Amino acid sequence: MRNARLLLALLTLLCADAVVAQQASYASYGQGCQGPCRPQKPVRWCVPVLKALEAPRIGKRFRVTATGIEPIIQSVLLTGTSRDRLGSLRLPLHAPWFRKNCFLWTSGELATLTRMTSSDPVVEFQIPNDKSLVGAHLYQQWLFVIALMPSSDWFFSQGGHGVIGI
Length: 166
Description:
Elements: H1 2-20, E1 25-29, E2 35-38, E3 44-46, E4 49-52, E5 61-67, E6 74-80, E7 85-86, E8 89-90, E9 110-115, E10 122-126, E11 137-148, E12 151-156, E13 159-163
């Protein structure tokens, strides 16, 4: 009987650890790169910062923003399922049209275009109340594009890694 109580106590502790492991989280990874946050003269340079306004939880809204940029820039929030690969390409990825030291940190299967007006861009997702999503990973990054003829300027925030929780 004593061993049964000890086994029950041990199982309770192990199950409690499993519940803790399903907590929602969001953390940064990689680094952003500098871009012309205000392209008109005088040019102001900055490194945009991705921030989650709350951790991703099933049945709740989840919002992501970027700070440190001017409201005239087109932006795209990239959301993906990998921080290691984009198809057959390895991440992080640098392309010739990216600014120096700029890297793509996410696979970006979903691209959400935002039109910035007077404040930092915010993208909101409603995460379904589906327990099968608990523990799912998502990777995000802001892409900013300034279209100046004859070329454009692409720069990025750092990456963000979310784990969907309860």
